[in-house]
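From the pipeline queue, job 12 of 40. The input is one protein chain; the requested action is below.

Action: predict structure.
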Amino acid sequence: MNEKLSLTELQLVIKDSLYLALPDMYWVMAEISEIKENYNGHCYLELVEKHTDEVSIRSRVKAVIWSSRFRFIRSFFENSAGESLREGLKILIRVKIEYHEIYGLSLVINDIDPAFTIGEMALKRQQIIKRLEGEGVITMNRDLDFPVLPQKIAIISSANAAGYTDFMKHLQGNSYGYVFYTSLFETPMQGKEMEAGIIKALEGIALYPDRFDLAVIIRGGGSQTDLSWFDNYNIAFYVTQFPLPVITGIGHDKDLSVTDIVAHRSLKTPTAVADFLIECMISAENHLTDLGSEIADRSSLMIEESKSRIETARLRIIPGARNLLLLSNNAIIRKKENLSGYSKNKLGIIINRLTGFENSLKILDPVNVLKRGYTITSINGNILKKCNKLKKDDIIDTRFSDGSINSKIL
C-alpha cells in the first residue's frame, strides 16, 4: 500500500477498525492502579493486570466512567460491596473500547459487578490467612504473655483521628485514677500510605521494647472500606513478629481483618480498648487486694498456731525444768560435799608438809647444831670450810654452844 496518510488519518483508520472489530461491550477483570474524580464528576482510572507475583505489571490501560454514570455505579458498588472504589481493588467491569486521536486507547466503563470484588477480597483475605498459617506465625503474638499491669502504651494511630481522641479521653479520664503512660506513633490509618506507616511505627516501637508494655492500633469507625486496608499481609506479618502484645481497636462490628486475627486481642472500638486496659488494672488491683487479705489471714493463722505451739512447749518445759533444777541442786550439794572433803584432805597434806619443813628447819638451825657438839670456826667473820685457807699468825674464832674462844695459828 503506497498511499500516504496523515497521522490524523491513520488514527481514524485505527479508530474505525477497532469499532468495526470490537463493536460490543465486554466484561473485563482488572485491578485499579490509579483513580481520581475531576471537578466535572468524571472518574478517570488506570487499570492493570499483574503477573502471579502480584508485583510486575502484565498490561495497562486507561479507563473512564462518565459523571452521568459514575454517581450510580459508585453508590451501587459501595452499598453492595461495602467497599469504595480505590487503588489496589480488583474489579469486574463492563466496558466499551474507545479510541481517541489525541488520548489514544481507553475503556469506557458502563457497569461494575460488586459480587466479583467481594469474592476477590474474601479470596485475598483467605490467601493471606492461609499463608500466615503455613508459615507458622499466625498465633505468635497471641502466644506472648500479657502484662499484669499494662500502663506503658505505644499507640499507632493518626493524631487527628476521632478514635484516638476518644481513646485518650477515656483512658486518662478513668474514674479509678489509674495512671497510663502513652506515646503516639503517628501514621495514616487508610490509603496506600497506611502499610508503610504502620510498619514504620511497629519498627520504631520494637527498638525500645523495655519502654512499653504493649502496643495498640486504633482508628475511629468507618465503612467496610476502611477495614479492608487491614487485610494486608505485610502489616499482619509484622504484628506476628512484634515483641510486645498488640491490641487492635479498628472500629468495626461486622468482621475481623487479618490484622485483628493475628493481634494478641481484637476489640471493636478504641474506647473498648481503653475499657479493656482499665479492666486489666482493676483486675490487677483486686488480685493484689486478695493477695494482701490472703497473706494477712495466713499470717494470723500462723501466729495463732505458733502461739499454741509455744504454750504447749511451755507446759512441757516447766516439769522438765523443775526436774533439771532439782537434779542440778542435788548435784551441786554433792559437788559441795565432795569439794569440802577434798579441800580438807588437801589442807591436811599441806599442813603435814609444812610441819615436816618446820622440823627440818629446826634440825638445821645452827644453835641446835652447836648443841649437838659441833663448832663453827671463822676468820674475820667468814666461816672456814677448809684449812688451806689459813696462814701462820692468823687469829681464828671458834664458837661453841656455850661461848667462843680465839686461837692463833703457829
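Job complete. The chain has ten helices and 14 strands.
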